[in-house]
């Protein structure tokens, strides 16, 4: 069978037929409209010189045109190259030049950023909602360009907070299999109405969209241009939505809202990924929203998802069992199995490699195993537990301190909404444990009080010697803790 993502989209439309499938800012789009527009845009791309294998940048906020563009690019045999809109001009310049993109689909409000970053580069620009994109939509419908299972389907740039962003090469089969894994999780629920607040330009949002192409039920999706908690609550109430894929920071922000003012009784479940969900946040969210939270784990280099809980197999504290397309091993630094160690992944979802970087690829994928850089363990029933990122490990006086352990304790304090822990250089201990916290609205606590709170609940070598109360804990563009920015805050 073929794993061409354009074929998957075509089969999805043939299977589910015509219905109102996507709501965005007051307008409903039907499955037929999305399908037919994507076919025309594919023809327009080919007419404008986009060839199989060409990289096409998609630089937009969440809009229906993202779904149309992705399907069109795959139909034309080209490579989806999504870019999160919260980029600086130098960061975007690096992505545009490194990828060798030949075309770009850009939101009107981002044209200035794009034009500055693309100066001197030969990239054809199509602006959503303007004449250039209309010209694509006026294209003659085109047939699907055949692509092999291991042909490049998407080039996602990741790691910009720790250095120059790396292009991760993902194949048609890898994304197809990973999307099927997401759908297998969804099939253990009864939900058909979802809210999408995730950036579709991120691996998590992309794989949720691909998962929807595997479904056997007509699914209604409500799309947020970007996440805002008040808008999220209003949309759930208005459209009686049943589920939403989120990252933990979104849940933490939602829990700080006046939830009693909204009718959220339609909610049944959340999918949580992108970062580890603190147990205290999960417990409170399940209680307050009356939902089951299904945690998952993955990374861009593994086509976004590796493991997930399902409605029939949940275990709080874990990130579920590996999905059918992924094999997981826990290895020590010598590459031997260990009770706790680096999470390594093998299977069709593993990236083809880093774009233009065979040396880093060889370091990261060894003997077919992707070395994720995450520390974890598997229990006797095969559930995976993520301990922390190896690179975030703090070594204080020769003792290992995982930031997540500190954060989980601080989040038990009723006044703390978000917590982030980092290591700070120290003459005596090598590194000192330092944390920053964001309080719940109306909450009150001093840094000294929180130090004492943690001290009473943690081993002497672990507790933070400094806790700084800040207006907002720094997050990345996809809602993860931005530890680099936290280090800058505390002088780390």
UniProtKB/TrEMBL annotation:
Residues 12-355 form the AMP-dependent synthetase/ligase domain. Transmembrane segments: none annotated. This is Long-chain acyl-CoA synthetase. InterPro entries: AMP-bd_C, AMP-bd_C_sf, AMP-binding_CS, AMP-dep_synth/lig_dom, ANL_N_sf, ATP-dep_AMP-bd_enzyme. Pfam families: AMP-binding, AMP-binding_C. The lineage of its organism: Bacteria, Bacillati, Actinomycetota, Actinomycetes, Cryptosporangiales. Residues 406-480 form the AMP-binding enzyme C-terminal domain. One of its GO terms (molecular function) is ligase activity, forming carbon-sulfur bonds.
């Amino acid at each position: 069978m073929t794993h061409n993502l354009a074929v998957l989209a075509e089969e999805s439309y043939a299977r589910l037929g015509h219905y109102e499938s996507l709501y965005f800012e007051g307008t409903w789009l039907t499955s037929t409209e999305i399908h037919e527009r994507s076919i025309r845009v594919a023809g327009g791309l080919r007419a404008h010189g986009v060839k199989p294998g060409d990289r096409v940048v998609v630089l937009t906020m969440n809009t229906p045109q993202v779904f149309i563009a992705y399907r069109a690019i795959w139909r034309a045999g080209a490579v989806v190259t999504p870019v999160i809109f919260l980029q600086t001009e130098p960061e975007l310049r690096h992505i545009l030049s490194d990828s060798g993109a030949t075309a770009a689909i850009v939101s009107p409000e981002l044209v200035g950023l794009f034009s500055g970053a693309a100066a001197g580069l030969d990239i054809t620009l199509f602006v959503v909602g303007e004449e250039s994109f209309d010209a694509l939509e006026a294209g003659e419908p085109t047939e699907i360009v055949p692509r092999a299972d291991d042909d490049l389907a998407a080039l996602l740039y990741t790691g910009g907070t720790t250095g120059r962003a790396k292009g991760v090469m993902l194949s048609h089969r890898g994304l197809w299999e990973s999307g099927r894994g997401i759908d297998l999780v969804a099939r253990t629920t009864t939900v058909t109405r979802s809210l999408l607040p995730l950036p579709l330009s991120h691996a998590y949002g992309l794989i949720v969209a691909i998962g929807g192409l595997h479904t056997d039920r007509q699914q209604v999706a409500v799309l947020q241009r970007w996440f805002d908690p008040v808008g999220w609550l209003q949309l759930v109430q208005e459209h009686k939505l049943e589920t939403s894929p989120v990252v933990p920071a979104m849940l933490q922000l939602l829990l700080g809202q006046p939830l009693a003012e909204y009718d959220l009784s339609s909610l049944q479940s959340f999918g949580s990924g992108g970062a580890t969900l603190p147990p205290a946040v999960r417990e409170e969210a399940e209680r307050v929203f009356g939902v089951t939270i299904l945690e998952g784990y993955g990374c861009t280099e593994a086509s976004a998802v590796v493991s997930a809980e399902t409605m029939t197999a949940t275990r709080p504290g874990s990130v579920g069992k590996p999905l059918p397309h992924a094999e997981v091993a826990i290895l020590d630094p010598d590459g031997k199995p260990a009770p706790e160690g680096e999470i390594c992944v093998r299977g069709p979802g593993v990236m083809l490699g880093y774009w233009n970087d065979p040396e880093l690829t060889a370091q990261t994928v060894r003997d077919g195993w992707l070395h994720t850089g995450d520390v974890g363990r598997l229990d006797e029933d095969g559930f995976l537990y993520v301990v922390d990122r190896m690179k975030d490990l703090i070594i204080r006086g020769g003792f290992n301190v995982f930031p997540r352990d500190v954060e989980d304790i601080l989040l038990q304090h009723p006044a703390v909404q978000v917590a982030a822990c980092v290591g700070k250089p120290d003459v005596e201990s090598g590194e000192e444990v330092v944390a920053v916290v964001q309080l719940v609205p109306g909450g009150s606590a001093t840094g000294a009080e929180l130090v004492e709170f943690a001290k009473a609940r943690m081993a002497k070598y672990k507790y933070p010697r400094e806790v700084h109360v800040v207006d907002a804990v720094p997050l990345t563009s996809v809602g993860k803790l931005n530890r680099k920015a936290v280090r800058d805050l505390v002088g780390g």
